[in-house]
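Worked problem 6 (solution included).
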Amino acid sequence: MVLEEEHKSQYIGDIPQKVIDLFGISLPTRAVTIPPGAIKHVKSKRPKDFELYFDQLKYVIENPDYIGMYRDSDKFEMIKLLDNHLLVGLSIHESRVVISSFYRVTWVKVETRLKRGRLKKVE
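Solution. The predicted structure is:
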């Protein structure tokens, strides 16, 4: 994936219908974008994660292994096992769904969230 202009949000991929059905959530669109601020955030706070995983975001969004909702319903997360577990944080806005961050998490964190009911496995 090639980075587009710095002042525009970049289209990443579409959330699968099975994910929407699993949670029964209403989204303004299935299309996911990443705004320039999120790109800047990950590049500065987690440069290695950006380097390793930016090109994998489409695959994660379209093929998550786990999905979880945050306490406030306008935010959720997707996790995919690549060479590590990659968490992608998303926010629902009035007319769009955006990636706010992405980073590696340990299996222990995934397992804890599963046990607490914060994550569901996507079958």
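Discussion: The CA atoms of residues 33 and 98 lie 5 Å apart.
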